[in-house]
Amino acid sequence: MAAIDIKETPSTTTFATAFDEWLDGLDTPQATLTKHSMEILAKSMRKNMALRDAILLSVICAGNPEYDKGKLRDYAAAPRIPNHQLSEWCERMMKWSFAHAGHETDKDKVLNASRMLVDIVAAVEDTDLKLQVQPLAIISYILWWMGDERAMLTAMRALAIDEECSLAAIVAAAIHGDQWPNRN
Questions:
Q1: C-alpha dist (Å) from residue 140 to 13, 56, 78, 170
Q2: Higher model confidence: residue 123 or residue 12?
């Protein structure tokens, strides 16, 4: 499969296939993504913060009884379509994740997600360094959420590439202020 051109926006079908591969990988030992899917996800995360957030929610909220892959797909695919129920669901999922940070966690999902995100970072290194920013920001958030102090290193790496990365900045500020989920 040919590499995606950095200037092109992945089609809805291509994006959906890559996101489904991501979701399947969370439940697969030694998960791997195709290079094409890694490029699609990196490119899509850079343009669509809802995809980044859906990827994050797929990891940190997997233990929530309301966890729903279909809702994650809907949120990632159509973030600009007003959907009050979906927004409320995402808000409940995030609140739950703070209350249960690092405790009611599917450690295998966290490990698989971390591996896939590191693979995405490596896969796009020679394509466009800025494509690494959102995967690094997600890694930093997951580490912070798990109470792992290495989160600051990953957040700073993302910010070194793009100082305007809001997720990495949030993580760095939280750690700097000694604010950790479910610890304070």
A1: 29, 11, 25, 10
A2: 123
